Amino acid sequence: MTDPYVPPTVWTWDQESGGQFSNINRPTAGAQTERPLPLGKHPLQLYSLATPNGVKVTIMLEELLALGHAGAEYDAWLINIGDGDQFGSGFVAINPNSKIPALVDHSMDKPLRVFESGSILLYLAEKFKALVPSNHFLRTECLNWLFWQMGSAPYLGGGFGHFYTYAPEKWEYPINRFTMEVKRQLDVLDQHLATNKMMVDSTYSIADIAIWTWYGQLVLGRQYDAAEFLDVTNYKHVLKWAQEIDARPQVQRGRMVNRITGDRDRQLHERHDATDFDTKTQDKVAPVPD
């Protein structure tokens, strides 16, 4: 048994913590490099990566386009967080917290920045009057679940995901602690979805989009290679809901945008036009030699 860690009186940062992403973690904010952001042809400019938080916004935009909202056309630029792109001066200017996704709306006299994935979903829902209920009671329920996700997912990603997958060593206490919490959250969802087709009655909304990218993909086996460990098949109502949303063409397209891992025909590093899904996936723009 190793000796217990005794915290110093005042914590100081003098070395990398180890584990994946340790090379870009710092205890300070602000730009680390001078790097302006590219600008495309559409009013909506998205700077992101296909993490669960990033996928929320690309799914939302594809859903809006499918509903006929032409003003939701967008340029999606890749921000590779593994390379530290989020610390470039241009990105920090639109999100001082240096986290993806971030959106800039150029459809008005003064460009408007929107950061934090939940804020972007709500902004787009209100801008286009879609995917959030207009009824006061249902709208409130939708926002209840949207903010539930925003408050709960850090336990899944930063807690369970970090210690189960990314930490330099596996430690029993944090894995057990965060596994217990993630399973409790899955049970919250399972009990709710036992009597509701979607998160807000039977109406597909931004609450479903936000929660699905984290918990839906978790039970579908796409998060942290942990489906068996978490016994996700036990949450049958969550699984049914997740599979139904996964089948939506808009969701399938949204998952491809800014993706840099997985099957090459499902990776669309940048998205500037609807035709890009057919012509600019990585298997087409950078085919692997025979």
Characterization of the model:
There is one protein chain. This protein has 290 residues and is α+β, with helices and mostly antiparallel strands. The protein has a domain of 117 residues: Glutathione S-transferase Yfyf (Class Pi), Chain A, domain 2, CATH 1.20.1050. Helix content is 44%, strand content 6%. It is built from ten helices and four strands. The chain has a four-stranded mixed sheet with strand order 2-1-3-4, covered by helices on one side. Helix 1 packs parallel to helix 3, helix 4 packs antiparallel against helix 5 and helix 6 crosses helix 7. It is globular and about 60 Å long.
Structural features:
6% strand; 290 residues; single chain; alpha+beta; Glutathione S-transferase Yfyf (Class Pi), Chain A, domain 2; 4 strands
Reconstruct the topology from this structure.
Layout: E1 44-48, H1 52-66, E2 74-78, H2 89-94, E3 102-105, E4 112-115, H3 117-128, H4 136-166, H5 172-193, H6 206-219, H7 236-246, H8 249-256, H9 276-279, H10 282-285
Parallel strand pairs: 1-2
Antiparallel strand pairs: 1-3, 3-4
Strand and helix order? EHEHEEHHHHHHHH
The CATH C-level class name of the domain at 136-252: Mainly Alpha
| Count, helices | 10
Q: Provide the structure class.
A: alpha+beta
What overall geometry do the principal axes of the alpha carbons give? globular
Poorly predicted residue ranges: none
Strand order of the largest sheet: 2-1-3-4
Helix content: 40-55%
Please tell me the CATH architecture of the domain at 136-252 by its name: Up-down Bundle
Tell me the β content.
5-15%
